[in-house]
Amino acid sequence: MLLHACCGPCAVYPLQWLREAGCQVTGFFYNPNIHPWREYARRARTMERYAVLAGLPLDKDTGYELEQYLAAVLTDPAVPGRCHTCYRLRLARAARAAREGGFTAFSTTLLASPFQHHQLVQKAGEEADRESGVAFLYRDFRVGWAEGMQGAKAAGLYRQSYCGCIFSEWERFGAGRDDRERS
């Protein structure tokens, strides 16, 4: 099983669940949506640290394809269009990596977050399944969200306060707020 990981904290519960279900799991970090670069690097380091703590083999796509991400989502920057495009971009890459790596299935930690558009993640995973020929494992990991966040906190993992994209950063910290609220 190749597990696309958006970040370390979101990987905690899905990894536990998959292992308990008998899966041999390898993590996969590909997230060109994360902005700015420093945030991307911090999340990548956190994922690497968690992988070591959890004994999780981790593959990282070393390309930070911000331009491709922006070109894709700017064709439909409104929610949910941009989110579905973002999920499709990341899960298509995960499915391709799964196929190239000889994995029989893939899934994503995006299914753990109550802040993601769950049905769009599922749809993007199923599209990537059809295009790649590698089975997408759908599981609603949100049931373990609190447990996963407790595990992330106990491990001292960096827990971000927005999805990662420039749009969600603006929605979280900028839109409609005055300077006092942004600090």
Query: What's the architecture in CATH terms?
Result: 3-Layer(aba) Sandwich
- Succession of helices and strands: EHEHEHHEHEHHH
Number of helices, where a helix is a run of at least 4 consecutive DSSP H or I residues: 8
Low-confidence stretches: none
- As for the number of domains, it is 1
According to CATH, what is the class? Alpha Beta
User: Could you tell me the radius of gyration in angstroms?
Assistant: 16 Å
Name the strands of the widest sheet in spatial order: 3-2-1-4-5
Category by helix and strand content: alpha/beta
CATH topology: Rossmann fold
Q: How confident is the prediction overall: mean pLDDT? A: 91
Q: Roughly what percent helix?
A: 40-55%
Give the strand content: 5-15%
Compute the separation of the termini in Å: 42 Å
Shape: globular
Oligomer: single chain
Task: Give your account of this protein's structure.
It is a single chain. The model has no long low-confidence stretch (mean pLDDT 91). This protein starts with a strand and ends with a helix. It is an alpha/beta fold and 183 residues long. A 5-stranded parallel beta sheet has the order 3-2-1-4-5, with helices on both faces. It has a single domain, classed as HUPs (Rossmann fold, 3-Layer(aba) Sandwich). Helix 1 packs across helix 6. The chain is globular, with a radius of gyration of 16 Å. Helices cover 53% and strands 9% of the residues. The protein has helices at residues 8-20, 37-54, 66-73, 81-101, 118-132, 145-154, 166-173, 179-182, and strands at residues 2-4, 26-29, 58-60, 105-108, 135-136.
